[in-house]
Amino acid sequence: MQHFRIKLSLFLNYFVFAILLNSVGTVILQVQNNFGVSKGAASVLEGFKDLPIAITSFLVASYVIRIGYKRSMLIALGLVTVMCLLIPSVPSFLMTKLLFASVGISFALIKVSVFATLGLITKDKKEHLSLMSFLESFFMVGVLTGYFVFASVVDNDDSKSTGWFNVYYMLAGLSALALILLATTKLDESSVQKEEKGKTLDQDFVEMIKLIILPLVLVFIFSAFFYVLIEQSIMSWLPTFNKDVLHLSTSMSIKMASILSAAIAAGRLLAGIILKKIDWLAVLVCCLICAATVVLITVPLTKSIPGTSITKLADVPLAGFAFPLIGLFLAPVYPAINSIILGNLPVHKHAAMSGLIVVFSALGGTTGSMITGHIFGAYGGQTAFYSSLAPVTILIILLFIFRKMQPSQNREKTIQ
């Protein structure tokens, strides 16, 4: 299969960072137990993860072509390998902040490089859209794996135990494996390197900024922002919701949250097939309406649940299984809109556009998690999750505008 080895490397890179990034929901729950921090204080971990992603992407994305996609990914993998080896030795709330900051910086390099590399290894827009969906689907497989890995090391009998930090030794090994695979894989970047000849660093940065003022790109940025706001607000706080609202044990809360990741993975896998045959706007709007319906039906089911701690799967309330299925309907949106905007730009602009995607996705994630955390602390979990209906409505409107502003029905056209 053409480009098999580099595709395998990209999938493994995404798998590693899926576990690291989305462990934030588990870690938010655990630092409340281990270090006695409040929900509002714990929510800053999302900021320590996402703000470095945004800042790094904004400052470095336009230069990634010069650094090299492969070299950028190797730097990122090397940094997280070192941090994962360090954190079990000094388990603390401060160290979790530093870990997520380093993961954020590294993921910015990984995501910009991965998105830009897709343009080099796909032959047309349909293949790009399909591969993007499969890649994002595999990302959620990593998230799902992470939930079970962390749940297996959490001590239900001792909430103060920090033994779960040892899981980072395993993640260091996985990151090192990804680094070795990438280092021994060839990636031809000559086609984009030619476009950089004669340009200064300042010109690269200005070109990225100029993308923002394009109306189509601006609408896309808002769409990406609101999507990640929705997804991350639910994903980061679902373990806490399961524990505080559904009264599941700590390990059960983490395991049940994995249903959301499985649903998103399945949704993106199906989207990779469906979007080849059905218009993307119809698919995405229907999915968002279904997601809102899930909220309206399942959240009321969480009221009047007995306060007894639940440790058995058979005793989990229906809402514990039903609400995470929202991920099945949210799933197709993000990879689809990313592929569409990249498909409307020439390949040499993909790195800069990927940088903007990462920046505004990170800002959306931080905003969503922090708002949800504060609403959760002040008004309870039901109100916090009901609040997701507002950005869902806004996103549906933005998708119609996004479609209307595409260059033409000729999908092979690009913005020059």
Sheet of most strands? none
The gross shape turns out to be globular
Catalogue the unreliable spans.
Answer: 409-416
* Alpha carbon gap, first and last residue: 32 Å
How is this structure best described in words?
The protein is mainly alpha-helical. The chain has one domain: Growth Hormone, Chain: A (Up-down Bundle). Helix content is 75%, strand content 0%. Helix 7 (93-121) runs antiparallel to helix 18. The radius of gyration is 21 Å and the shape is globular.
Features of this protein?
mainly alpha, Growth Hormone, Chain: A, 20 helices, 416 residues, 0% strand
Describe the structure concisely for a colleague.
The chain is mostly helical and 416 residues long. The chain has 20 helices and no strands. The protein has a single domain, classed as Up-down Bundle (Growth Hormone, Chain: A).
Helix and strand arrangement:
Layout: H1 4-21, H2 24-35, H3 39-42, H4 44-60, H5 64-67, H6 69-86, H7 93-121, H8 125-153, H9 167-183, H10 190-196, H11 201-212, H12 215-244, H13 250-274, H14 280-298, H15 318-322, H16 326-330, H17 333-343, H18 350-379, H19 381-386, H20 389-404
